[in-house]
Amino acid sequence: MATSLSTLDSGAAIAALLFRRVGDSLLATPAIRALKERYPKSRTFVLCEPQVIRVFEGLAYVDEIVNVGNSPSSLMLANALRAIPNLGASVDFLSDPRSALACAMGGAAIRVGFAKSLRRIMYTHRVAVQASASPVYSAIHKLKLAEALGANSSNWMPDFALKSENEVFAETQLRERNLTLSGTIAFFVTSRREYKRWPLERFAEVTDFIQSFDKKSIAVIGGENERGSIEEFCSLANLSVNNVSVFTNIGEMAGFLSHCELFVGNDGGPKHLAVAVGTPTVTIFQNDPWEYWTPPNSSLHIAVGGEGQSPSAEEVIRAVKGFISH
Fold first, then answer.
1. Is 52 strand, coil or helix?
2. How deeply is 121 buried, as exposed, middle or buried, from its count of CB atoms within 10 A (0-12, 13-18, 19+)?
3. Does some domain include residue 155?
4. Domain of 265?
5. Do 88 and 14 belong together in one domain?
């Protein structure tokens, strides 16, 4: 093991794969950062699908981003790995059958992944999967992939590099919508997964509470494909078009969130973006353990609900009140 790792000390490349979702990509940044800190001479390559490229742009510890296209095959991923000069290690953050096989065929002498089923034999270094009885924050669990290569870190907070145009876009959006520059509360009321969607009627109760405060504004955020659901909610909650903030890319959303006082909403990519840019969060969980997706022991990031629960509007209002009254 020591002999193999010495190649990383000497500058052999490290490849991180495979990233498909915004949240999972953001939660992997602490592990990639730790690897670069441990092996500063090594070049780090990130293999990802096009929709999450922006997550890794501008990060000082990512040397090159490899766009592998949508849903690449094992062979395509293996060829992408083999094209990396002086590849020393591949770190499989997805660890599904496709990415595990790609690692085995990719040419790296060191292969790290989660010990899932029989695919564990594809890796030289294996990390145990999360124990359902004692779940931990996903970023901490992903850090164990870096720890398997001797990279230790106590910093598990995700990163996102804002660009100047993201800042300009955010400030323009806030002004054009007459939203308060220092008191906007971002609401994320949709979700790709139906079981994560908290009832819109309860969200409306929370927005009613927010509007009872002076100098507080509401922005209902999402992507262009979520516009219909956002407008449905705004109609239900008696919010106007000025309260709708729909973004065409995650850089715009991250810039906007960085100017918000608070994020309130369902678990998902926007919540993890808020965490990465330093915006406090109140996240609503139902049918899902909050421990997987919430930074532990943080007064800035509060989880309401949990597995098998559907919290009341009053519970969420109580958490929100702790931020905005302060």
1. helix
2. exposed
3. no
4. 164-324
5. yes
* Greatest C-alpha distance within the chain: 65
Judge whether 106 and 73 are in contact, CB under 8 Å. Answer: no
pLDDT digits (tens, 9 = 90+) for 178-237: 776 678 999 999 998 888 899 999 999 999 999 888 788 999 999 999 999 999 999 999
Query: Do 140 and 175 belong to one domain?
Result: no
62 and 94: one domain?
A: yes
- Beta-carbon contacts of residue 288 (< 8 Å; ≥ 6 apart): 195, 196, 267, 306, 307
**Structural element, H or E, at residue 303:** strand 301-306
pLDDT the model gives residue 325: 64
Instruction: Sheet containing 281-286: give its strands across.
Output: 244-247, 217-223, 184-188, 262-266, 281-286, 301-306
Q: Please write the tens of the pLDDT for every residue from 98-132.
A: 999 999 999 999 999 999 888 999 999 999 999 88
Q: Which among 119, 147, 175 is the end of a domain? A: 147
pLDDT in the model for residue 1: 45
Structure confidence at residue 216 (pLDDT): 87
pLDDT-flagged residues of the chain (< 50): 1-3
What is the spatial distance between Cα 211 and Cα 184, in angstroms, rounded to a whole number? 11
pLDDT at 181: 64
139: nearest Cα among 126, 120, 154: 154
Determine the Cα–Cα distance for residues 173 and 156; give it in Å rounded to an integer.
Answer: 31
Residue 2 is predicted with a pLDDT of 45
Q: Please check whether residue 160 is in contact with residue 255, taking contact to mean a CB–CB distance below 8 angstroms.
A: no
Give the integer Cα–Cα distance in Å for 41 and 19: 24
Reported as type and span, the H/E element at residue 74 is helix 74-82
Q: Is the peptide bond before 18 cis (omega within 30 degrees of 0)?
A: yes
- CA neighbor of 305 nearest in space, from 316, 292, 321, 317: 316
One-letter identity of residue 283: T
Task: Mark whether 247 and 139 lie in a shared domain.
Answer: no
The secondary structure element, H or E, covering residue 218 is: strand 217-223
